[in-house]
Write a structure and sequence with these properties.
InterPro entries: DNA_brk_join_enz, Integrase-like_cat_sf, Integrase_recombinase_N, Phage_Integrase-like_Recomb. GO terms for molecular function: DNA binding. It comes from Crepidotus variabilis. With about 500 residues, the protein is mainly α. The protein is about 35% helix and about 5% strand. It is built from 17 helices and five strands. A three-stranded antiparallel sheet has the order 1-2-3, with no helix packed on it. Helix 7 packs parallel to helix 9 (about 250-260) and helix 11 packs antiparallel against helix 12. It is globular and about 65 Å long. The termini are far apart.
């Protein structure tokens, strides 16, 4: 069960784990975390009622500048759960009419996970509205002072507690865990800044335009352009999830974000990732022993990711115990496909991806030489023989069966590269290298776009050797005519 984060003056200590801190210390935050003694106070019981029943605290109460909550003297109050996920399909609440079975189907419940302490440079004043929880849960668990029903403009439809909770749960399902973690981190930064500037709780949400752009301007110079954008997206998502109005002047916000991006510190700007090439894959091959289970799994995974233009996270796991048969690829997700010319491709169905909760297909064809993904995959399947319902790239060791994790995968590859005096690679380098390899072969841009499953032109940012990729398209007419015969479909 999550415990509310408390001031350093509180007698309740946060959990011993440390939240990853990759952000620089910000000078605009006040280090004092003392509780404000401001105006009208709300009792702890009233706030707990608000969290569990979605009561609107701004109604039937004077509109206060802020509220002060006495820190509980016993840890029992601090450990009160702030989520109340009821069985929303219960017929006792909606009647036993058989037609109601079409409505209010059961929704996922939230697992109780301990949150890590917040970074020291992001102090947060104690508030029952913002209990301590993991970053991925903050969008839903952290509550605004006003409820969704405060802004309901329907004169006839009554939005009760279960309706409001169900709406929020359904909206939250829109964002993947990684997105919710990113948004939750930005939300922590926003509330910490508001506390440092004594912004009243009622003005945290709905946020005013001037408050938002002042916050972004304060962060500029300490964060990267993408971090600033993600903060805004996180605050906007929080408003959307809780049914709060979003009144922001887009033109001025874009201008502030653009200026903040240019003022980003040099340390926040990463150099472009170098692409993995076929030659690098061959160098890895020379240093691996494909007769050992781990190396066989690693090399099969490497060639599959590269030739299918996939992400590393789509064929590896974040941890040894994170395998979920509904989310991750299994041996049973492989099939063969043939076109009308009997050309064969191997198809991998990814049950769940970042851009498609219902899954996507990726594929590759056999290649010549030692970088052939077909030979590598067959070697892995023969040596490790994962079952149909087991994670595809599982391997055997002295301690038993293990799924291939992202860290193990990259570590083994980079060790092989290091022994060849080659620089290490990063996960995204494989996807970048795949785009470059296919473009250098003369494959049209729209085909590469489809292969990598891009819905926009974002993949063009992966181009590294622009001149070499474009070279065939800008030659004299005689060469270009021969080249286009192979790269462009005939005109009918």
């Amino acid at each position: 069960m999550c415990s509310p984060h408390m001031s350093t003056r509180s007698s309740i200590q946060p959990t011993p784990h440390q939240e990853a801190n990759t952000l620089p210390r910000l000078s605009f935050f006040h280090q004092s975390t003392s509780l404000p003694s401001l105006g009208h106070s709300l009792s702890t019981s009233t706030l707990l009622t608000h969290l569990n029943t979605d009561t609107d605290l701004s109604q039937n109460q004077p509109i206060q500048q802020h509220y002060a909550i006495q820190v509980p003297k016993t840890p029992s109050i601090a450990r009160v759960s702030t989520t109340n996920f009821r069985n929303l399909s219960s017929e006792t609440t909606r009647g036993s009419n058989t037609s109601s079975k079409r409505f209010n189907a059961p929704l996922p419940t939230r697992n109780s996970v301990q949150g890590r302490p917040y970074p020291p440079h992001l102090p947060l004043k104690f508030s029952i509205l913002r209990p301590h929880c993991p970053a991925q849960d903050r969008l839903a668990v952290w509550k605004p002072l006003q409820s969704r029903r405060s802004f309901s403009n329907s004169p006839s439809l009554i939005i009760d507690c279960e309706d409001s909770a169900r709406i929020s749960t359904v909206i939250e399902a829109r964002w993947d865990k990684s997105t919710r973690e990113t948004y939750g981190s930005g939300l922590l930064t926003f509330h910490s800044w508001c506390d440092s500037r004594n912004v009243p709780e009622l003005e945290h949400c709905p946020v005013s335009h001037i408050t938002l752009i002042t916050f972004i301007a304060s962060c500029s110079g300490s964060y990267s352009a993408s971090a600033l954008r993600n903060m805004v997206h996180g605050i906007h998502a929080w408003h959307t999830l809780h049914g709060q109005p979003w009144s922001v002047v887009r033109s001025e916000l874009d201008a502030v974000l653009g200026g903040g991006g240019k003022l980003a510190p040099i340390s926040s700007k990463k150099a472009p990732r170098p692409p993995v090439t076929v030659e690098i894959i061959k160098a890895v091959y020379q240093k691996l022993n494909l007769n050992t289970p781990l190396d066989a799994a690693v090399y099969a995974c490497l060639t599959t990711i590269f030739w299918s233009t996939s992400r590393v996270g789509e064929f590896t796991l974040p941890s040894l115990k994170s395998f979920d048969s509904q989310l991750h690829i299994k041996r049973s997700n492989i099939r063969q496909g043939f076109d009308r010319n009997n050309l064969q491709v191997t198809i991998f169905h990814l049950p769940h991806t970042k851009c498609s909760p219902t899954g996507e297909d990726v594929y590759w064809a056999s290649q010549s030489g030692v970088a052939d993904p077909n030979a590598a995959l067959n070697n892995h399947l023969l040596l490790n023989n994962p079952s149909n319902e087991e994670f595809l790239f599982s391997y055997s060791s002295n301690s038993g069966r293990h799924p291939l994790t992202r860290n193990c995968f990259l570590t083994r590859i980079n060790n092989a590269l290091s022994s060849s005096n080659l620089p290490p690679i990063q996960g995204h380098s494989l996807r970048i290298g795949s785009v470059l390899e296919y473009l250098l072969r003369g494959i049209p841009f729209d085909v590469v776009k489809s292969l990598g499953r891009w819905s926009s032109e974002a993949f063009t940012k992966y181009l590294r050797e622009h001149a070499i990729v474009i070279a065939p398209y800008i030659q004299d007419s005689a060469f270009q005519e021969r080249f286009l015969q192979y790269t462009m479909p005939p005109v009918r």
